[in-house]
Amino acid sequence: MGGSAKLIPREAADYTRLSVSMLAKLRVSGGGPEYIKLGRKVIYERDTLDAWLASRVRRNTSEI
């Protein structure tokens, strides 16, 4: 874990403007931001969320 702020799923959902349930679905299906699993706890790093959000930027609707 780096020096980035650590966020619990509720905080990560607020930060990304996604729902907590959508983040949970992305953890199951893949394609979501990387996360850290500590026992039953899930932690997101803010830098990882920023990188994931940046990777989602599109110029038009025909981009994959």
UniProtKB/TrEMBL annotation:
GO terms for molecular function: DNA binding. The keyword DNA-binding applies. The keyword Translocase does not apply. Residues 10-56 form the Helix-turn-helix domain. Pfam families: HTH_17. Keywords: DNA-binding. This is DNA-binding protein. It comes from Xanthobacter tagetidis.
